[in-house]
Amino acid sequence: MGESSNTVRVFWKTIVADGMTNKKRTSITIETRKTTVIRRRKAQTVAWCERCHARVLMHNPDEAAALDGTTVREIFRYVESGELHAIETDEGALLVCRGFYREEV
Q1: Together in a domain, 50 and 72
Q2: pLDDT value, residue 2
Q3: How far is CA 73 from CA 53, 77, 79, in A?
Q4: For residue 69, which of 9, 18, 60, 99 sits 20 to 30 Å off, Cα-Cα?
């Protein structure tokens, strides 16, 4: 997943010459990019998502947080609030549906 954002910073410089005041404006635009790569050592998990009504790729909370650009704590909050689809395995592990991330509620 890649993200880009622009930040504009404006600086004002006051110049006084011959009794007249002039302002000079300088703006700086900074572009940033972020790329997240997840390498899997094990087979991908595909499971039935009740809310998507389909078999979808599932991620553990760490992977979901990296893909969504947030924290694991936020992933748990989104699951509890219903913003993310998730299932719990027989072993008690949480798997987050990859069919979408954070529906608009």
Answers
A1: yes
A2: 41
A3: 26, 6, 10
A4: 9
